[in-house]
Amino acid sequence: MEKITTEEQYHNQIGKDQFTIMKFYTNWCPDCKNLDRFIGDIVTENSDKQWLEIDAEQLQHIAEENDVRGIPSLLAFKNGQKVGHLHSKFAKTPDQIREFLSTLS
């Protein structure tokens, strides 16, 4: 997953006419490390989507403007609009993430 490091990069990526899935994480988060153990398979299964990650502490204002209150969180964007948000308590298993992705259309 490509890491977003600037606000400009974030806006450029979410503005695309395809689903962009943004993983919000921090380095110290144990649930984030657990997610990293299985997210690769899900990314491969959903190669039609762009997958990116953003450190919620490094770009805190972006996390706040997107109502990221727990990590890890997965947000879906298309054409610059947030179209889905999988909050941290629902992003703990592969099945939860697959179910979230299946709601995107």
Automatic annotation (TrEMBL):
Alphabetized CDD domains for the sequence: TRX_family
Domain Thioredoxin intervals: 1-105
Protein name: Thioredoxin family protein
InterPro entries in UniProt: Thioredoxin-like_sf (IPR036249), Thioredoxin_domain (IPR013766), Thioredoxin_H-type-like (IPR050620)
Alphabetized PROSITE patterns for the sequence: THIOREDOXIN_2
